[in-house]
Amino acid sequence: MDLKDAKAIVTGGSSGIGKETARHIAKAGGKVVIAARGKDKLNHAANEIGAIPIPCDVGKEKQVIDLVLEAIDEMDGYNVLINNAGYGHFSKLVNLSASEFEEQLRVNTIGAMMVARESAKHFIRQDYGNIINVSSTAGKRGFEGGTAYVASKFALGGMTECWRSELRSHNIRVMQINPSEVQTSFAENAGMGERKFNETKLIAEDIGKTICDLLSLPDRGFIPETSVWATNPK
């Protein structure tokens, strides 16, 4: 698609990968709604990049339903979902509580499903749409302390394959991107502490640009899945 024709929702759009993806779409002339929980940060990001802010906690079903309906009204249409909202909780198995595990799935997996479900209803009616799920290389390989996060991302990958099978006949492209470590506030929010910038590692703009490259492929084709790694991280 031509990005100037995009009418997109970007969840987790107030910072990091979501914000940079929204910035690229807006810069190309497309319309974009960014959604996140924190209103002040969301409004600031929207003003900075030229997006429409709609507060939403993707773990809450009514807010998700309202998000999609309001976005359709605000943009006079809707054809792109960037399913990006998510966070990380890391703990060894013996220290992992059921509530922590459930909350990780509530946001990263069930939240992604609910936004995709409401989006797919609209895309099916118009016989066109695009869904890009932002997963992680953690959705391909487990690691120590990653039980909850890895499970949420493996599940997202499985759902992506199901949606692709269901929606392809409606001219809906379902894609997935798996970034390796990206230098955003993710690690700090996960309780890992602040990290110094490392010029050899990926930044949010790298992933935002790649997402837009996936979207920009002519509608007759699509790239089901791609991974992005730092070339030589040190």
From TrEMBL:
Can you name a GO cellular component term?
membrane
Q: Which keywords label this protein? A: Oxidoreductase
What CDD domains does the database record attribute to this sequence?
SDR_c
| Identification of the protein by name | SDR family oxidoreductase
InterPro entries registered for this protein in UniProt: NAD(P)-bd_dom_sf, Sc_DH/Rdtase_CS, SDR_fam
Q: Does the keyword Oxidoreductase apply?
A: yes
Origin superkingdom: Bacteria
Q: Which family does it belong to?
A: Belongs to the short-chain dehydrogenases/reductases (SDR) family.
Does this UniProt record's set of keywords contain Oxidoreductase? yes
UniProt GO molecular function: oxidoreductase activity
User: What is the native source organism of this protein?
Assistant: Halalkalibaculum roseum
